[in-house]
Amino acid sequence: MTVTLYYHPYSRAANVVWMLEELGLAHELHFVDLMKGAHKAPEIVALNPMGKLPILTDDNVVITESAAIGLYLADRYAAGRLAPALDDPRRGTYLRWTLFAPSVIEPGIGAKQGGWATKESQVGWGNYDAMIRTFDVAIGKGPYLLGDMFSMADVIFGGTLRFMRMVKAFEPSPAVVAYTDRLSARPGAQRADARNAAIAKEHGLGH
Description:
Oligomer: single chain
Distance between the termini: 35 Å
Strand content: 5-15%
Number of strands: 4
């Protein structure tokens, strides 16, 4: 088994490092120099025709899209620990909030920041204010999306909120602040943050 993450610390691959730390899974990081356009090199495009990161290979399996990578890793390497079992009633909630991150949060906030002209009925994120209120609904009584069970959904959904909060992309509610602070305090998140910072420094990347 060889797990390799094609990676840059200023890409969504940075959050995949957190996934791997939570899993405790042996892996290799393959640095891809985005600033030099290395993500468009033929060998990268052969793995992901989009020419984008992250890309994860697990022997001969190739997975792209951050949420898909998280779901794959949790099901294969942490079933019942970071992913509810297929017959667990929490599985639906797990999938709901995992896919909410790339399908709703990312484009919704991007549209708001970019001033895109959209019709609520024609886009997946619908109403921006309703989307923001939904964050608190997802967190619910906590401490995690599945109550007491920390899962890969928290790494994907929560990781998105951590990043959006860091870049001040939205005004977080007190519940979101508490939730993201709770996630940032996890040893796995702290190890990932340290690794990302160290690799950024190694390659002379500024903020």
